[in-house]
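Data availability (excerpt). All sequences and predicted token strings are deposited with the supplementary files. A representative entry, Phosphatidate cytidylyltransferase, is shown inline so that the format can be inspected without opening the archive.
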Amino acid sequence: MTDVVKKARLSGLKPRLLTGVIVLLVCLLPFYFGGYIWTALVAIFSARMMYEWVRMTDSGATPLAFGLAMVGLFVALLYAVQGLPVWAVGALFLVTLAAVAERQSRGGAVWTAFGLPYIIFPAVVMILLRGAEVGFATRGFTQLSFIILVVIAADVGAYFGGSTIGGPKLAPKLSPNKTWSGAISGLILASIIAVIAGLFIGLPAWGSVLLALPLVVLSVLGDLLESMFKRRLGVKDTGTLLPGHGGLLDRLDSLLAAVVGGAILFMLIGDRWPIG
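Structure token line:
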């Protein structure tokens, strides 16, 4: 990686950090309380991502196209916060069918068929995983915190590792800025943060690392998946909402994949999670 490219990437660090701090402050209290307060925040974030997705994938989107996507999102989250996952998935399925039918006349319905579940299903999982228990020492808070911390650490490690070390590209056809050095740096930092988080939660170091590894892989795959979408659609960013990041979907693409995988992992380990 040339010095010019390194300087260009590092120059974007300040707005990225500032944006990250602001998002963290906005999320902290709702995340602490869980339940309907957390659901309201997830709904706002997910609605923005859905707006970015529809705008990016459907140049001729009608008000009905946006409306169906939002209705599907809000109804699914309402069922999720009430602890009704089957109803949430059912609502998602029905609204997706309606949205695909609405899109048929314009073509490209496959983007709608994939896009609604792509955003809504992880949002439902985040609601179900967090639950309604208030406080730090709750199962939902610690599990979702673990996922988020690992994903953030992987992203930060990849950013610094790729910017300073450079080297061979990870997937040059999809995302030319991502390197193997960045991916490895992200994996290392995520493992370290997972071990530290595990100490507070009561997880052994080896268990924390074993949980972190698939989460990091999923976060990278989620990032590359969105990069593939943008390349196919010929767009650079999903939006301009977040300085240094682009759109909200640009920032949370890694988390969408990791939170679903994390929920599956936590189901598999069951009562071996030390809290709750």
